[in-house]
Design brief:
265 residues; alpha/beta; two-stranded antiparallel ribbon; 9 strands
């Protein structure tokens, strides 16, 4: 598709990557191997897709909300008899991640307005995530990578780090896109933790961290005593090794998992 015929839709948060060097670096980070099952979220005009098609992957699934781009990718796959490619004309937020069978690598230039809920679902719901490589707003990437004690550390940091090792890829300037966004982007890489290190009860952990970070400046004792009065007992602080005056930002993801187990026995 010629570049002049591509029109970004603000309603979908579209910014199309045009820098070939950046595109190739993202593909390299995916480390696509023969027989990998690969999913791309929001392929758009196909900057990454055109290279992924050339890889010897077992499956290449594309999730595309835009009517025109979804049709274009379907037509291309049919015309070139690429039977390993499947196009889902769908909002990625509505995709059932639990249905993915086997190991999957997931990539994508995620729209800024849906990136956080998408990543929240993917790290938890994909049964056998092998690797994820996402392009997101740099500010969100900083939050995801943040460590306890920092101002950017929050519920998203705790949640994703409870499921994956998080690594920085590289920063991408607005000039690499058309139209250029108003902020820098960043490539971030997720590598799943061993099953034994993941949360035992993710639903309760999600509930706990959302409660704790809604009032991040308040002491956890006061927050939990009010929000979870039936489950909460202040004696848990002796077991976890923290003062009851502790604030949410001081607990690591492992601390939150331990706190979750103690509260929801």
């Amino acid at each position: 598709m010629a570049e002049e015929k591509i029109f970004a839709k603000k309603s979908l948060g579209q910014h199309f990557l045009k820098n070939e060097s950046v595109i190739n670096k993202i593909i390299e980070l995916g480390q696509i191997q023969e027989n990998d099952q690969v999913m791309e979220i929001g392929p758009g005009p196909g900057a990454l897709t055109s290279i992924l098609r050339e890889k010897s992957c077992q499956k290449l699934w594309l999730l595309e909300k835009d009517d025109t781009f979804a049709l274009n990718h379907k037509n291309y796959a049919q015309e070139h008899q690429l039977n390993h490619i499947k196009v889902f004309h769908i909002d990625a937020l509505t995709f059932d991640w639990t249905n993915l069978k086997g190991e999957w690598k997931i990539m994508g230039n995620l729209p800024y307005n849906v990136a956080s809920p998408l990543m929240w679902d993917i790290v938890y719901k994909v049964p056998h995530l092998k690797k994820a490589v996402f392009m997101i707003q740099k500010e969100v990437a900083e939050r995801i990578k943040a460590k306890e004690g920092s101002k950017t550390y929050g519920a998203l940091s705790v949640w994703i780090q409870s499921f994956c090792k998080v690594e920085k890829g590289f920063v991408i300037r607005p000039s690499a896109f058309t139209p250029p966004p108003k902020v820098d982007s960043e490539i971030i890489i997720f590598s799943p933790l061993p099953e034994s290190e993941k949360p035992h009860n993710p639903e309760n952990l999600a509930k706990l961290i959302k409660i704790c970070f809604q009032q991040r400046r308040k002491q956890l004792h006061g927050i939990l005593q009010k929000a979870l009065k039936e489950q909460y007992n202040e004696s848990i602080w002796q077991e976890i090794g923290f003062s009851k005056e502790t604030r949410a930002e001081m607990l690591s993801p492992k601390d939150f998992q331990k706190l979750c187990q103690l509260i929801f026995k």
